[in-house]
Batch of 3 targets.
Target 1
Amino acid sequence: MMLDVRNLTFSYGQRPVLQGVDISLKAGCVASLLGPNGAGKSTLFKCILGLLPGYTGDILLQGEDARRVPLKRLARSVAYIPQAHYPAFNYTVLDMVLMGTSSRVSAFASPGKAEVAAAMQALDTLQMADFAHRDYMRISGGEQQLALIARAIAQHSRLLIMDEPTASLDWGNQIRVMQQVRRLSEQGYTILQATHNPNQAYLFSDEILAMRSGRIVAAGSPRAVFTAPLMEELYGISAQVESLRDDCIRVCVPREICALECELP
Amino acid sequence: MPERRGAARQGWKVAVMGVLLLVGVLLSFAWGRYPIAPDEVVGILGSRVFAVEPFWGERLETVLINIRLPRVLLACMVGCSLSAAGAAYQGIFQNPMASPDILGASAGAAFGAALAILLRAPSPLITLSAFFFSLLTVGAVWLVSTRARGKRVLGLILSGIMVSSLLSAGTGFIKLVADPADQLPAITYWLMGSLAGAKLSDVAFAALPMTIGLLPLLLLRWRINVLTLGDDEARTMGVHAGRLRVIIVLCATLITSAAVSVSGTIGWVGLVIPHLCRMMLGNNYRHLMPASMLFGALFLLLVDNLARNLLQTEIPIGILTAFIGAPFFLSLITRGEGHG
């Protein structure tokens, strides 16, 4: 197993955020984590990334207790891909990707030839090599997201944690980014992404995890998990899930609005 | 490969700055009320190491070694330190508006100097008191911020502002009770910042803390890039963000305190020079940090040349840097496109 989370519990002070979370991900799978705002998705990610040490339960990375892994080595087994954001300072795309190699560079040195080669290769993997010398702040949101994914690839981690990678992107860029995510999983990368788009989760993932109030309420193949009752449980909106194209695509629609506007059955 | 070429070009720019600084230093030795010809400069300096038959007046040698040399060295050291500290603070606070006095180093030094002048301490003690209070102030700011709720960086900046204003009030009170005949003007001149009367002992005093502070900043410069992305992101890339920030703050504070205690409060250098370097070389600290150090030294050296040569009477350098810094900053914020 690439990632094994066992009975993970975490509280901010008195407020419990994660209550006995169990997850296990095989190498090379794309898992989408669905859940309303405040369900604990970000906290779960922070625990896996070693940013919140005060949890109980176990997080195993390829069988090894994450608590015992020092920061540098942790960075080489799991990488974090944040939502595309504006950093305080503008860097070239190459510099941005090079930062992913920091765990392999001594504290007193700057990245050298080997790191530049790794960064260029990572950009190439995402078909972003032409962007290496562009300003990160002057490329589109979709390209920024791909650059951040390239940074994680340059980090040489096999498990990629993505926090709503497509949340701020237009529809075209959402698809482009998700296609790249699929390609990476075919190359053996394991991806755990949080998303607020259940349709996309159904189309692009091997597994859907549904989280509510700090608990995993459903987990499994998209066909088994993505149902109207689950959507209603997660988001508190009466929902209907439509199946299209021989169940290759499922679309979740709000039932009440549709009943009013479109005379849904 | 184009990616190597980009880095090499920035490296060249840094090298050019180094050469300019060397030329600037040699010219500054020559320029002054008593002009010294370049061959005489080289001869006098060379005579300290090699046996050179003196072909210059003894008076020129005294001027060069006892007056001009310490002043030129100090201008370079102070400019280098303030600029490097500004660049470092901007990075760790993820804020292009940060300057070396953000954690109260200047306000603390001003208070320490004013207090020493009030107590009629001799000149070396004034410097020492400024240095001591400067470090003490930043230490207090750090302590207060660890107890502040909310975001760590915001807590640091806010407590920096508060402790600074508290100390400024203290300095104001000292000015009120100081003897208006001699103490008050002395305090006022100190606050304006000046390198006039720089002595070799000042150079010796500042050299150690500056070396101790500047070296780690230079060595850790790539890591500062990673820190500008925020603590969480830095940690997921294997960089100990909290530990690194402590080291950088310690180093930046040490060099700021050393600079301010020998020169008085010289504003703007730490804000404007790193910005100029960002425009010329980009934001990557790999080149930005050495460029800021060299260009800061060059800038303050040039301004100090103006300060001592422009008018019959010496102009406090702090006033000149503000005269140059403020208009520059205005042009920066009205450029339309944010370059930060």
Note: Chain B touches chain A through 33 residues (CB under 8 Å).
Target 2
Amino acid sequence: MSKTSRTGITMPAQAKKGTIIEIRAIAQHDMETGYRYTEDGKRIPRDIIQLFTCQYNGEEVFRSDFYPGTGANPLIIFTTEAVASGTLVFKWVGDGGYEAVNQAQITVS
Amino acid sequence: MTEFNPRSNPIKLSRRTYLSALGLFGLSSWMAPSLTMAKKPEAMEAIAKIAGSNTIRDGRVNLVIPPLVESGNLVVLKLSIESPMTANDYVKAVHVIAEENPSPNIFTAYFTPRSGRAELTTRVRLADSQRVWAIAQMSDGSFWRGYADTLVTLSACTEMI
Amino acid sequence: MNLFVFCLRVLPLLVILIGVDSSQALEAPKDTRQSSYYLMTLENRAMQDDSNLNPAAFWVMDGHSLWKEKIGNKNVSCASCHGDSGQKMAGVATQFPKMQKGKLQTLEGQINQCRTSRQEAPALAYESKELLALTTFVATQSKGLPIAVQETPQNKKDLQQGHQFFNTRMGQLNLSCAQCHQDRAGLKLGGSLIPQGHPTAYPIYRIEWQTMGSLQRRLRNCMSGVRAKQFEYGSQEMAQLELFLMWRARGMPLETPGVRP
């Protein structure tokens, strides 16, 4: 069974066709770097989200790679063109079978 | 207090000269580190991997990090790349490289013509005061870069680990 | 006199006289208290203010889920007594620590007291994800409300003890809380500005910890900072110190859930 966590999407529910909308996507995740050690000197293994994708009506419009150097509870604010009404699907994939999905509807006039 | 004696032993004199040169080196590296010290090789290797044999031009990439940061654990990073973002002329990818982090690649984003603007905001970890680079790859195969310098302090009274 | 005598005798005297803290010369304004929110960079303040940028928002959501979860031998949830939305908790966090049945109780302690007695469920450990989530959820209901801890005949002794802890030197560095956070607040320690140390935003998402933490965790950090033996989580000393700090911050608005560097 894959691990998952809370995610949050903030974006407008409506937009005029052709305008550029701002999307904020955040995931609850410690982003364990793999560079930390326990008190008894054991290395804590890396456990991070590695990939974030945004699909708009089935077509990928944005993608980003996360690394140990990406901050905990990773946030990404990006833009996309409001081309048509429909669904935006956001996916996060990471170490240890981590997978989180969120979606939002948009009405484009 | 001893005074400089130009007629002192030649061996002592050369040691004095050596020490002065060392001191001068130390002083100049404190004053202008980028000129006297080598940049982190892994970071430069990572950048070379991205661009291959292509030249990376300065400009078009605007990277903004606060110049003074209270904790390197979560630093707001803003990127804005000049591009019309049309189907024929857009930013394909931007790679963020931190010179002093244990691993130089800290964030990569892939835009599409549907992105509208080649802009993003994220939050990264910065291990130390350093220069952070953003290398952009355009759809026409050209590479452009921008950078930002930041001072990372540490908040007082941290946890005992 | 020659330069040598001047440097040896007069200059140090001048330095001492000029260096004296002149803040007492000016008339102090009515309320000089300031939340450490104002010492943060604009980016960190924005992180606290905007719930879709504030990582602590996840703990508020987790707390709400736990609030509604039926657990324990009694199979009841917090919501069963206190309502689903949590809005009835408005004003609660601003009163803690408070005397409950003759015992000084912190908000975490009260949550555990409810769990063990009303729900017959095990108490949650300090700094556990669940306790932090519940505490954050409850405290967030009081966001914007003034801290309401007052001196009462019942809490007077504990308040005095907390005040004494605040003024007592401790640790290898032999410093008291007051020496930094009362006498030298606003000055710099290393690269950071010394805050007055009002617990107006707890539990906080501390960027240093990269997660949520309680006031007690932060106080333990202070104690390790002066190389003192740290008070134990949930101890009487901790509650007394918390009581004093909240009383010292009375009237200041609660900012929970806060972000701090």
Note: Strands of chain B lie at 56-58, 61-64, 68-69, 75-81, 91-98, 105-110, 118-124, 130-138, 143-152.
Target 3
Amino acid sequence: MNDWTIAIIKVVFIWSWTLLIATIMTWVERRGSALIQDRLGPNIAGPFGLFQPLADGIKLFTKEEFAPKHAHKILFTLGPVLFAVQAFSAYAVIPFGDKIVINAKEIVLQVADVNIGFLFVLAVGSLAVYGFVVGGWGSNNKYSLLGGLRATAQLLSYEVPLGLAMLAVCMTYSSFSLREISLDQAGTFLGFLPNWGFFKQPLGFLVFLVAAFAEANRVPFDLPEAESELVAGYHTEYGGMRLGLYLFGEYVNLYTLSALMVTIYFGAWHLPYIDMSAYLSPFAYGIASFVVFFLKCAFFLWLFVWVRWTIPRFRFDQLMGLGWKSLIPLGLLNLFVTAFFIQISL
Amino acid sequence: MGPVKQRIANEDYVTINVGPSHPAMHGTLRAIAYVSGETVLGTDLEIGYLHRGVEKLGENLTYHQFIPITDRLNYCSAIANNVSYEMAVEKLMGLEVPEKAQLIRIIMTELSRIADHIVLVGILGVDLGAFTPFFYLFIQREEIYEIFEWYNGARLTNTFGRIGGVEAPLPEDFEERWSKLKKGLDKAIGETDKLLTHNRIWMDRTIGVTPISADDALNWGFTGPCLRACGVKRDLRKDEPYSLYHQFDFEIPTGKHGDVFDRYMVRMIEMRESVKIIDQAFAMYKELGPDEPLMAKVPKIIRPPEGEVYHAIESPNGELGFYIKSDGTDKPYRIKIRPPCYMIFQAFDELIQGEMISDLIACLSSLNIIAGELDR
Amino acid sequence: MALKDSVLKVLGKKALAFDETAGSLFVEVPKEHIVACLTLLKNELGFDFLSDLFGVDNSALYEKKKKKKKKKGEESEENGGSVQEEPVPPRFEVIYLLLNLETNQRLQVRIRVPENDLTVESATGLWKGANWPERECFDMFGIKFRGHPYLKRLLMWDEFPAHPLRKDYPLEGMGEERELVYEPEGEGHWT
């Protein structure tokens, strides 16, 4: 197997995997919300409603593709396409496990180990704004436009704290490459704490978590698609597969952000205090690292769902105030404190 | 067009139409919001989408035939409307309703008050993004509906009571149903309280949003929880006691600023007070024997003497009054309904000026505007 | 009754008649002095809460009374009396429901509005809450309120040709339909 084949297999695998997770997330969202709200949720399509995402997917695929009369023909379709493309591309540099050995060939479980890894993620992530604003404008609808504008302001504002938190992580581990950051999180520091980003950067994690909620457009930051205020915000006029692209893109974004959080703050595939590679064969170790990574991601995905159904949403000025007046100063403070600790070589 | 549009003719604004069909609306009403950025410059209000000519209908139906129509006024708490109308006719005729019937009326009115407040708190949560308390509370509302259905067969629009009393005693298993409901309500209201009242985001969204001073509120004709939220301690059950309310021990909660948070808290506390009233009323009811009369002596065809009367009760929304003019025949000459949210909704433009679009939705939800009552 | 006396004292000659049914006190004042009377009642007697404001069409009542009198008149004519022609009383009346927040007393103020002079001075200067009730009165009966900030129809659509709560308007309506003309008012496709 030459490198080209391996690369193509990795790309196909990661693409299908994220799509699969996105579809399973719709099921988790609906059953999870039902669990929280003291009701049943989908339980008819298959055992425990497990075929519900399949039914939803078929419904979205086979719906009539309509566009409002005066919608801009190109922009109306371009919006969701841009959004989906961005969502899938961002995962290219995030590892999903350590190494795996197949037929004496070592394969790194990461599509592209670029040495400016996290910059790539940030850059591709900011393309999400185009998806919202193009879709909102192209719909020829005041509600969509308002939703698109709100989404733009929100996403742009919250990228700054996201970047600041990640910058501090890069300072701590002296690298931009996500694989090196993951590898660096083995072992312990201060004697008993694992070398994870969460223990080295607690404030940074908090800032990153809140900014991740805002970047993913999830409650409490879901104003762009606030149901009761703007009908459905930027995707008011969408139906069929275009809406499907928006919704799946949102879940893929969610998965990307969870994976990012796990990679830089929760030790990627490392178990605390246990070095798996010492006990398992290289092939099994590869599989085990993938499983551990995924379980950690699953926890964060559940956290997103949990928070959505628990707390109300912000008003727009409060949201902007939180981003600019609270998170950015905290992110900067975190940078200074990190720099200080690095200087005294902790 | 509307008065607000004339007022802001020289400013730069975008028209956002909220309603008549919109996920947040309480019934069919239209608020044309003139928005500059995210700030609302004013709203023109258009009502009348649900105008059914109830008052004209009343002039062509007998007194008893009008009772089902009063159900459809405030359909979230139909029993309060029925009781208000029946009491107005009884006042006109000078009837004395027996004690057992009055107790049943009080118990049912308070249950419907709890149901109405549950709707408001749940929908306010949904409009602001907190989806879960809605489910916890509405499960209890289903239990209340079960009691209503067990009583006379209808869940939502119960044509409750007759002129002169009520039609049936409480069902035999009311005690068990009530104790189960009481526990469930306590738990649901407690959980909603924990989820919302001290939640930082909820407080940010509701405290200080569209406050109104007590003087302004009285000038506009506010009554009910929206007035009590401004700090005015007025409740018709205490100020002009009707029926047997003077015998019960309950508190009247008041707010301070009249903002969305106060209106929400007043209703939460009122739900608990209603539970207390039902407890006391049911204790009195149990002492009465099964042979007590349920209706006063009323002729088959009701012909009140000539005259006019106005009677109001404290419905969940405020002062719901009926003016009935009789000309001696079996059909009323003129019925005028004084809907509480009619006077409250007039003030909406003044309330919402200068606030943001999200506040418009929060304010509209907190005022408990029910289109059936508004338009009649 | 104490309330009747104090109202008589405050309004003096303006209180034309008193009615009391089942504990509700009605006082009739002349149409031209309504706002002055309401101001007096508000400031002197403390009736500072306007509960409601609405109209009544008495034409059917007068028809019935006229028929009764005619019948009586015919009977008395047979007995040798004479028929007297009564002047037509004013067709409409507007009733204001006032409430005293301190003493919790209610007072109903009534004015008679003849059909040929349907203008009444608006109470919106005293209470902002009189706004919509007066619009509804105009909508349902045709009584115009002078000085109202925006007297247009409220519950029916703006171009509705009749006044529905009048007694000569049938219950089934007269088949009016609304022509929905959609005009985006020059803002292009945005509405």
Note: The CA atoms of residues 141 and 271 of chain A lie 50 Å apart.
